[in-house]
Specification:
This protein is α/β, with parallel strands linked by helices. The protein has helices at residues 3-29, 72-83, 111-116, 128-131, 138-156, 193-196, 202-219, 253-270, 292-296, 319-336, 355-364, 399-407; strands at 61-63, 89-94, 99-100, 103-104, 122-126, 160-164, 231-234, 276-280, 308-313, 340-345, 371-374, 411-412, 427-429.
C-alpha cells in the first residue's frame, strides 16, 4: 500500500469515528428510545422506594386517645376540645339544666339562660347515684331519670357533657343509712382502695358492680340515630386533697395510679365502653409557685391513661391564683398534646358585681383553655339563708356583668358552638 492510500484510509476511519460519536450524542439529547433500546439513550431507573404520600401539613395536630377504639363522634369531640381553645373557653355550669336557685325540674329552664338568653356550652353532672348503692332507691331512680333527660337535651343542642362521680366509700357505706354524712360518703376518707384492688374482697366486688352500672348507663346513652353519645368522664377528682377515700391521705401514689388504670381498663377493655374521654382534675386553689406543674401532674397515671387535663379551682377572690394555674395548665396541655380546662370553679355566695369580667375573663384571656365550668346553684326555694350558689341567677348583682362576659368573643356558649361532634380541621386523632 502506498503512502497516499495509507493517509486516505486513516482520515476516513477518523471521520467515521467522529461522525458516529456526534450522532450518538444527538440521539441521546433528544431522548431516544424510552424503553432503553440500543439507541444509546440515557435511561433513568425507577425509584426503588417511592413515597406515595406528600409531606404532612406541619400545621396538623396529631392527638392520641386512651381508647383507640373510641367512636367516631367521641374522637371528633376530642379533636374539637383541642381546637376550640384557640378561640376561647366554653362556659359550663354543673346541673344547670336540672335545677336552679329558685326552680327544680322545669324542662327547658336554666339559670344561665334566664340571665343571658343562651344555655351553657358545657353541661356538668354527677354519675354517683347511678353507680353506688343509692341507685336502688326509688327516689334516686326518679332523679336519675331526670339526669338522663337533661343529658339528652344538652346533646341534642350540640353541647358538651362532662360527668364527675362523688361515689360513696365502698367499705363504710351503710345501705341502711345512705343519708349519713360524712360517714360512708365520698367525703369519708377511710382507707379502702387497697381492698378494691384485691380481687375477691367484698369491697372489690362492690366497686366493680358500680362500674358495671356506669357502663350500662353510658352504653345506653344514644341519640335519635342510635349513635352513642360521648361524655368526658372525670373520676377520682381533686385527688390532691385529703377529703376523699381516693385522695392523698387515704391512698399511696401506687394505689391511686393502679385504681385509675384499673378503672380505665375495666370500662374500656372488659365492658367495651368506647364513648368516654378520660379527664383528670387535681384541685388547684392557691398560688403554688415553682410547684405548680408538679401539682398538676400529682400521681399522674401516665399519658396513655389520661385524655383531658382538668383542674378544680376554688380560689375565692384570689384571681391571680387562677391566672397562674391557668398559665401552667395551658403549658402542660401543649407539652402533652392533650386538651385542658377548668373543670370546676366559682366562689360560693359571691356578691361582686364585676365577678365575671374580673374573676373569669381577665385571668383567662390569652390562655389556651377549652372550658370553664362553674359549680352548681343549689335549689333553695324560698330559703334565702342558704347561699350555696356559684354562678349567676336572675336577681344576682352580677347579672349585667355576666351579659358583658357573654358578649365577649372569648366566651363560648351553646349558640356559639361549632359542630362539636364533627372532626376539627387540621386535627387527627389516633391516626
Amino acid at each position: 500500500m502506498n503512502l497516499r492510500t495509507t493517509i486516505y484510509n486513516t482520515l476516513r476511519i477518523a471521520f467515521l469515528f467522529v461522525f458516529c460519536a456526534g450522532l450518538t450524542m444527538a440521539m441521546s439529547s433528544c431522548g431516544g428510545d424510552d424503553k432503553g433500546g440500543g439507541s444509546g439513550a440515557i435511561v433513568v431507573p425507577p425509584d426503588p422506594d417511592p413515597d406515595p404520600d406528600p409531606d404532612p401539613d406541619p400545621s396538623t395536630i396529631h392527638l392520641t386517645m386512651v381508647d383507640p377504639y373510641a367512636t367516631a363522634e367521641t374522637k371528633a369531640l376530642y379533636s374539637q376540645l383541642w381546637s376550640i381553645a384557640e378561640k376561647g373557653f366554653m362556659f359550663g355550669h354543673h346541673d344547670d339544666l336540672w335545677y336552679g336557685r329558685y326552680w327544680y325540674n322545669e324542662q327547658g329552664n336554666s339559670d344561665t339562660k334566664a340571665v343571658c338568653g343562651d344555655y351553657p356550652a358545657v353541661f356538668s353532672f354527677d354519675f354517683a347515684t347511678i353507680m353506688d348503692s343509692r341507685s336502688g332507691r326509688q327516689y334516686e331512680q326518679g332523679e336519675n331519670a331526670i339526669r338522663r333527660r337533661v343529658i339528652l337535651e344538652a346533646y341534642k343542642r350540640g353541647e358538651v357533657l362532662i360527668g364527675c362521680c362523688h361515689i360513696n366509700n365502698p367499705l363504710t357505706e351503710q345501705e341502711s343509712n345512705l343519708d349519713a354524712y360524712p360517714q360512708g360518703t365520698s367525703w369519708d376518707n377511710t382507707k379502702c382502695v387497697d381492698q378494691i384492688l384485691q380481687t375477691g374482697t367484698d369491697v372489690n366486688k362492690k366497686f366493680f358492680t358500680w362500674l358495671d352500672r356506669l357502663a350500662e348507663f353510658v352504653s345506653n346513652l344514644k341519640d335519635d340515630e342510635g349513635k352513642l353519645i360521648p361524655v368526658i368522664f372525670r373520676p377520682f377528682h381533686e385527688h390532691t386533697q385529703d377529703w376523699s377515700w381516693w385522695g392523698s391521705k387515704a391512698t399511696t401514689e401506687e394505689e391511686f395510679i393502679n385504681l385509675w388504670r384499673t378503672t380505665v381498663r375495666y370500662l374500656r377493655d372488659t365492658k367495651g365502653v368506647h364513648n368516654l374521654i378520660y379527664a383528670i382534675s387535681p384541685q388547684m386553689d392557691s398560688n403554688y409557685g415553682t410547684g405548680t406543674r408538679s401539682r398538676l401532674v400529682f400521681r399522674w397515671p401516665g399519658d396513655d391513661y389520661v385524655d383531658f387535663i382538668g383542674m378544680d379551682c376554688y380560689h375565692g377572690g384570689n384571681y391571680g391564683a387562677l391566672k397562674a394555674n391557668a398559665d401552667a395548665l395551658s403549658a402542660l396541655s401543649i407539652e402533652k398534646s392533650k386538651p385542658c380546662g377548668v373543670t370546676e370553679t366559682g366562689k360560693e355566695k359571691f356578691t361582686e358585681s364585676n365577678y365575671w369580667t374580673q374573676g373569669i375573663v381577665a385571668p383567662l384571656t390569652g390562655q389556651r383553655i377549652s372550658m370553664v365550668v362553674m359549680w352548681r346553684n343549689k335549689y333553695v326555694g324560698t330559703n334565702e339563708d342558704d347561699k350555696h350558689y356559684f354562678s349567676v341567677y336572675p336577681g344576682h348583682p352580677s347579672e349585667e356583668d355576666f351579659r358583658t362576659m357573654y358578649d365577649n368573643e372569648i366566651s363560648i356558649f351553646s349558640k356559639d358552638l361549632p359542630d362539636m361532634y364533627k372532626m376539627a380541621e387540621n386535627v387527627t386523632v389516633n391516626n
